[in-house]
Predict the structure.
Amino acid sequence: MEQLERPLPAPLAPEAKPYWEGLKQNKLMLPKCNDCGKAHFYPRILCPHCHSRKLTWVEASGRGKLFAFEILHRSFNPAVKTPLPYVLAMIELEEGPRMLSNLINIKPDPALIRCDMPVQVIYSKLNDNFTLPFFQPAEAK
Ligand SMILES: [Zn+2]
């Protein structure tokens, strides 16, 4: 059996399939409502803003900002083998939705990490079926 650093979802919810398929191609896909125009995350069969079922998938820019974070020095779940300490991050995407991820490629030091800092997605392929979106500090322009 393959050894992964974290447990993966199984079985996948059918409404989330375009999300996981997009990640395999290094694309962050979000469901967007045709009626109210708002994107949301996590994937659902109804728009959480207006309850419309008219959803389409759009590719997110991959840019956002750090909304909140926590530096973990102990694993909350023994199945997660990510080396400690690491940064659990709530990312607010440019399109609006927030998603829970990890902030990587920065020292897990509260003096360096700031809420509202610009971040960008980086894809981590775990195996042929799963790629996860992590975030790193956005490159200066
Ligand atoms: Zn809507």
Summary: The chain has a mean pLDDT of 92.
